[in-house]
Amino acid sequence: MRNLIEFLTKNNYWFVFVVLEVVSLVLLFRFNNYQGSIWFTSANYLTGKAYEIDSWAVSFLTQGSLNEQLTERNLELEQTVQRLKEQLRDERLAHDSLNKDEGQMPLISDFHPIHAKVIGNSVNRSDNFMTIDKGFVDGIHEDMGVACGNGVVGVVFMTSRHYSVVLPALNSKSNISCTIAGKGYFGYLHWKGGSPRIAYVDDIPRHAKFQVGDTIVTSGYSAVFPPGIMVGKVTKFENSEDGLSYRLQVLLSTDFTKLRDVCVMDDKAIRERLDLLRQANDSIQPRKNV
After folding, report:
1. Per-residue confidence band for 266, with pLDDT thresholds at 50, 70 and 90
2. How far apart (Å, rounded) are the C-alpha atoms in residues 123 and 78?
3. CA 144, 122, 77 angle in degrees (round to 5)?
4. pLDDT at 232
5. Is residue 46 over pLDDT 70?
6. DSSP the chain
7. 238-247 contacts: CB < 8 A, separation 24 or more?
8. pLDDT of res. 109
9. Distance, CA of 123 to CA of 194 (rounded, Å)
């Protein structure tokens, strides 16, 4: 206590100076319109800047979560839209588009997306690869489908503990089963190089009826992707090299040059089918003599 009193006594003139300065500033800005307007404007500017910085920081910290939610929601909506279109085209459901025979359609509840960030990507090679920041400790395995909010991305090619390499649609070895939405004809998506927005669907039968502008979606036949994931739009078509089928040029819905957030398709039904196919493949391999 004695030390405090000595300190105040020794520096009393500084405290008096500060008090007088505060009083003078209050009188200056309160009773002078010009100085008061300057103070008011400056205070508002500083307050606004503080709120702006706070809003930017919150937006930056939550942006990743929002992107993941939007990506997942877009995928769910794409599948729902495709299923509703197929129901509406079915004459048996013309009077009841909400028929409860849900067993004929894969359920959204079977789809559990694993969100990931693209940390490495190329689009200007003939065999492009993509790296994401999730691995087998996150539940990712080889041959899982990868999609984004706009549509198909590719298939998981290789995994490590915390990272995975994806074979995207922009790879000459990519081979994704697709169908013309609502028409039932299916073929396989291939990329021939060149523009990262253009790919081709081969093996469409000659008797198929379609037109430019039709939507291409995943067929669900490949045991990798569920049906109804957006692939792109038909921009033109031509005869195949052997003349026995059509080749469709497709404008891809996914812009690989701007890809940041993806979902790995963790689907129980797909995994079961894929495991069954692997077992069947192993069973027909020629056994070696021991």
Report:
1. confident
2. 25
3. 45
4. 94
5. no
6. -HHHHHHHHHTHHHHHHHHHHHHHHHHHHHH-HHHHHHHHHHHHHHHHHHHHHHHHHHHHHHHHHHHHHHHHHHHHHHHHHHHHHHHHH-GGGTT-TT-S-GGGS--GGGEEEEEEEEEEE--SSSB--EEES--GGGT--TT-EEEETTEEEEEEEEE-SS-EEEEESSBTT--EEEEETTT--EEEEE--SS-TTEEEEEEEETT----TT-EEEE-S-SSSS-TT-EEEEEEEEEE-TTSSEEEEEEEESS-GGG--EEEEEEEHHHHHHHHHHHHHHHHTSPPPP-
7. 240/202, 240/203, 244/206, 245/187, 245/202, 245/203, 245/204, 245/205, 245/206, 246/204, 246/205, 246/206, 246/208, 247/200, 247/201, 247/202, 247/204
8. 45
9. 9
| 148: β partners | 151
Confidence of residue 277 (pLDDT cuts 50, 70, 90): low
How many residues are recorded in the chain? 290
